[in-house]
Amino acid sequence: LIVWHKWVRLAEENECQRRRHAAHFTFQPDPVPTKYGPTQKMNLFQSVTSALDNTLASDPTAVIFGEDVAFGGVFRCTVGLRDKYGKDRVFNTPLCEQGIVGFGIGVAVAGATAIAEIQFADYIYPAFDQIVNEAAKYRYRSGNLFDCGNLTIRAPWGCVGHGSLYHSQSPEAFFAHCPGIKVVIPRGPVQAKGLLLSCIADKNPCIFFEPKILYRAAVEQVPVESYTLPLSQAEVLQEGSDVTLLAWGTQIHVMREVADMAQEKLGVSCEVIDLQTILPWDTETVCKSVVKTGRLLISHEAPVTGGFAAEISSTVQEECFLNLEAPISRVCGYDTPFPHVFEPFYIPDKWKCFEAIKRMINY
Predict the structure, then answer these.
(1) What's the whole-model pTM score?
(2) Mind telling me the catalytic residues?
(3) Which of 160, 304, 321, 361 has the most Cβ atoms closer than 10 angstroms to its Cβ?
(4) CATH says 19-223 is which class?
(5) Which helix (DSSP H) or strand (DSSP E) does residue 333 occupy?
(6) DSSP characters over 206-273
(7) What pLDDT, in 10s, does the model give residues 3-56?
């Protein structure tokens, strides 16, 4: 009897663990791209590796550096690159984010292509001064005599199911307040490779946030050769007539499910837009959609107060006020540190977004 009770308790604990760590979305792969040549099945971290491999092969000045990148990094995004290109081009740094970005600025100013990795986006804050006061302003302060536009900073981003307060943050809004840098977040492997290569080629310092929960969960057919996707251009993934659903990164897949629920349960037609670039963002595509639908729901994992949804909401209100049929709705994280055991309650899941759609339709 005691053994039986132990097994029951263990089964219950396993079920709780399974539920707590289960993804709050279903990844929906994009159609196979045909215009960039042969494709290969890759998950998101493999598509990042492929982009870095293409860059190192084509640009002899390119270097990749960060904590533990030499052996592949925590998420294996640089695996095999040191062996292929040498320890002078792919190398570890001390555990010092300020130093990583400061070094990257110097490398970029000297004319090389610098690709810095911050091990988690949560740990980018020690480098905040270097990014905001140095990298973003280098060109401006020198009257365009010098710049560090060859700097790209990569960082795993967003909630992962069990990351808690130090491994699940989404800090894009902090950097959206800073002219002089670009901030990009992909939704899947195809976008990750194309947008990362665009960031590396762009002549402005870029921050590239990679949704860590998608590293292995997202699998698509990705072009093997190098290709780029345009920055500062949102993508309309699904056309609709009643509500515009706007998100980026992981939350795009939540919105896709919400759009299906709204159509099935309410007969509501939703237009789904992936913003992709946070700064500078594509106001034209978003406002054009809101003029058509009259309603806008914005969703992100970061806390609601001061989140980037607030900037979008303000701009759309200014541009589309007479076209709005209901107040703009924000479904975001709460104004608390990211919790651990209460993570399922914190995440802006499809049910919260679905309720927001019902409120807007019935307004």
Answers:
(1) 0.93
(2) 97, 167
(3) 160
(4) alpha beta
(5) strand 329-333
(6) EEEEEETTHHHH-EEEEESS-----TT--EEEE--SSEEEEE-TTHHHHHHHHHHHHHHHH---EEEE
(7) 344 343 434 444 444 444 467 999 999 999 999 999 999 999 999 999 999 999
